[in-house]
Amino acid sequence: MIAKTEYELLDHTADCGVRVFSRTLEGLFENAALTLVDLIVPSAALSPNQEHRLAISGMDTEDLLVNWLREILYLFSGMEELAASISIEKLDDRSLIAIVRTENFSPQKHEIDQDIKAVTYHQSKINRTSEGWECTVIFDV
Amino acid sequence: MHINQINPYCFEIPKSGDMRVNGLVFTSKEMLPDIASDQSLQQVANVASLPGIVSSAMAMPDIHWGYGFPIGGVAAFDWKDGVISPGGVGYDINCGVRLAATSLEMNDIRPHLDRLADAMFRGIPSGVGKTGFVKLNRKEEKKVLRQGSQWAASQGMGEDSDVEHTENRGRLPEADPSALSDRALDRGLKQLGTLGSGNHFLEIGLVEEVYDDEIAHVFGLQKGQVTVLLHSGSRGLGYQVCDDSLARMTKRVAKLGFSIPDRQLACSWINSPDGEQYYAAMACAANYAWANRQILMHQAKNVLLDALSISPRDLGMRLVYDVCHNIAKKETHILDGKKRTLCVHRKGATRAFAPGHPEVCRTYRNVGQPVLVPGDMGTCSYVLAGTAQAMEETFGSTCHGAGRVMSRSKAKKAAKGRSIQRELADKGIVVRWTGRSTLAEEAPEAYKDVTRVVDIVHGAGISKKVAKLKPIVVVKG
To answer: What was the pLDDT predicted at B416?
Structure first.
C-alpha cells in the first residue's frame, strides 16, 4: 500500500497521469509501482502470499521505469496478482532487479476503481528535485 | 503554432521545420481554441515529419491528444517507402462500433426498460477482469485470430449477412498468430465475448431523427425504430500486441536512419521484419475484435428475445454495419491521377468510403458506406454515409465520436454531489454500470458535443448525416 503523500494525480484529457515522489531512486521505482496498484484498487489492504523476482532492462532510466511498470501491470492484467510490497535489489541506469510480493486479485475482496490498461511513454520523465526524486507517468485507461 | 484557415471547416498547419507535409485539421473556428489548448496540434505536426507520409497529416474534429499520434488522427504512408506506427493505431486495436436495427418501437419496450437493463447487464459480461462465455483453447483461439467475424458466424453466433455488413467482412487476411507473444495469446483466451470497461458500452436506442430518407431507407433505418449499438475493441489481447510492438520498435528506433520527435511515435519501415510482424499481429487483434463484437451482438439478441419473450421474427434484429476506428489498413487510393498503395492509419477516425467503391458491400454500394459515430453516454449517436469528397480529401476517413474535453479527475470533481444516474433518468435513460467511478468519468460534459463534431464533417463534405439515435438503456463497462 502507498501513502497518499507519495504521489499526486495529473490532469490529462483522456487518461490517468501521476507524479510520484521519493527521496531515493530505488524508493521512486517502488513508489511508482505501488501507485499503479493504488490507482487500480485504492487503499486496499493487501496481504502478499507469493513473490516474483523480476529482472528488467531499458535503454535509459525512463524506458526502464516504463518497462518496470509494464511488468507490475502485467502481474494484474495477465496474472491477476496485485503487487503489495517491493524490495529493489539492484538498480542502475538501465537495469533493475526486484522482489515483488503479491496477493491474488479477488473481486469479492478488492474493489476496482480504475481499469489501468497500459503504461505509456507519453510525458514519462524522471527528475532530481531538492528533496530527492520525482517522476511522471501517464497510464491508458 | 501558426494555423491558416482554408475554409469554414478546414485549417492548415503549414509545413515547417521537420515536417515533410502540411497538417490539415477539420474543425470549426468555435472548436479550435479547445483543440489548441492541449498538444494535439503539435502531435499533428510531429506525425507530418514521419518518412513516407503522403498528402497531409490529418485530424478530425474530435481531435484530442494521445500517444504520439493525436486521437482523431489520419495519416497515410506509401506502402513501399513508408513507416507503420502502433501509436497511429492505438492501444485498443480495432476499437469500433456495431449497430443493429430491430422491428420494435418504443411502445414495445417502454414497459420493460428496467428489466431490459438488468437483463443486458447480467447477460453481457462487462467491467474489469470479466471473462466471457466463450471458452477457447490455444488452437481455437488461433482460428479466431485468423478468421475474425467469420469464425463467430461458423460457430452459430451470427449470420452470413452479418459478415457481409462488416467493414472488411470482419477479417484482415494478413493475420498471423505466430506474430503474437505468449502473453497476448494468454490474455485473449478468456475475454472473448466481453464488453470491456472505460468508455465501452452497449446501448438500446431509438432512431430519433432521419436526415436523408433515401440513404436511411437503404440502411434499413426509420424514425422510431429500436436499435442496439455497441462500442468495444480487442480487449487485453490488443493492448498486449500494442505494448509488445512499441517495446520492440522503441529498442530499434536508433537503427531506423531518421529521428522521431516523440518516443511514442516509435515505428518501423512497413517493409521490414518489425513492420510486417506488427501488421500481422495488429490484423490478429483486429480480427479478434470483430469476432468479439459479433459475439456480443449475438448475446444481446438472445437477451432481448428472452427478456421480451418474443420470436426472432418479431424482434427482426438485423446488423446495419460494423466499423473500426483504431486501425491501419493496406488500401489503394488515387493521388494525382495515379493509383497508390498506402498504409492508412486511422486512430480515433472511421473509414467513410464513397458510393460506388467496390469495398462497400453490395446492399449499400449505391449510397456509400455507413459510418457509426457514438456520442457520449447521455446524448445521442449518429449514422452517416461516406462520400466521394472523403475519398479525395481524407483517404476516405471521417470522425469517430465525441472526443473528450475534460480529464477523468476533473469530470469526477464536476460530478461530486450529483447523481449522474438520476440526471440520465430524467432524460429517460436507464443506465447500468460497473466500477466506482465510471459514471462520473463518463459524464456528458466530459466530452465534446458530438452534434458539433458531426455537423463539421457534414459541412466539410467528408461524410453525410443520415440519422440520429437516442439512447434509452445503457450498459457501461
So the answer is: 75
**A15 CB near a chain B CB, below 8 Å?**
yes
Active-site residues of B, by number, are 400
Q: Are strands A7-10 and A16-22 parallel, antiparallel or unpaired?
A: antiparallel
First and final CA of chain B: distance in angstroms? 38
* Contact B404/A at CB under 8 A: yes
**B386 CB within 8 Å of a chain A CB:** no
Q: Residue A37: what pLDDT?
A: 96
Task: Look at B247 and A59 and tell me if their CB atoms are within 8 Å.
Answer: no
Q: What cell was used for B392?
A: 479525395
Cβ–Cβ under 8 Å, residues B290 and B149 = yes
Residue B107 distance to chain A (closest CA, Å)? 37
**Are A11 and B409 an interchain contact pair (Cβ–Cβ within 8 Å)?**
yes
Q: Which three cell numbers stand for residue B431?
A: 443506465
Closest Cβ opposite residue B408 in set A59, A122, A141: A141
Provide the whole-model pTM.
0.95
Closest residue to A78, CB basis, from B187, B247, B409: B187
Beta pairing class for B463-476 and B430-433:
parallel
Reference B383, options B72, B99, B73, B162; nearest CA is B99
Q: What is the ipTM of this complex?
A: 0.93
Contact residues on chain B for A109, CB-CB shorter than 8 A: none
B416 residue type, one letter? K
> What tens digit of pLDDT does each residue of B311-355 get?
999 999 999 999 999 999 999 999 999 999 999 999 999 999 999
Measure the CA–CA gap between B168 and B155, rounded to whole angstroms: 19
Residue B453, classed as helix, strand or coil, is: helix
Cell of B434: 460497473
Asked if residue A98 lies in contact with residue A75, where contact means CB atoms within 8 angstroms, the answer is no
Average pLDDT over residues B26-37: 91
Q: b or e along B228-252 (b: 16 or more beta carbons within 10 Å of the residue's beta carbon)?
A: bbbbbbbbbbbbbbbbbbbbbbbee
Contacts of A112 in chain B (CB under 8 A): 127-129, 435-436
* Helices (H), ranges, B176-272: 182-189, 213-219, 235-251
Q: Touching check for B413 and chain A: CB below 8 Å?
A: no
Q: Rounded to whole angstroms, how far apart are CA atoms B233 and B47? A: 24
Considering only CB atoms, which chain A residues are within 8 Å of B239?
77, 117-118, 140
Residue B451 CB burial class (10 angstroms; 0-12, 13-18, ≥19)? middle
Tell me how far apart the alpha carbons of residues B133 and B140 are, in angstroms, rounded to a whole number. 14
Residues 6+ apart with CB under 8 A from B279: B84, B174, B270, B328, B330, B343
For A104, B406, B412, B428, the CA distances from B424, given in Å and listed in that order, are 36, 19, 16, 7
Q: Tell if the CB–CB gap between B247 and A70 is shorter than 8 Å.
A: yes
CB neighbourhood size of B427 (10 A): 12
CA distances from B324 to A55, B28, B104, B475 (A): 37, 25, 27, 20
Q: A–B: how many Cβ contacts below 8 A?
A: 82
- Shortest Cα–Cα distance, A5 to chain B (Å): 17
Rounded to 5 degrees, what angle do the CA atoms B18, B348, B419 make?
Answer: 130
pLDDT band at B467 (very low <50, low <70, confident <90, very high): very high
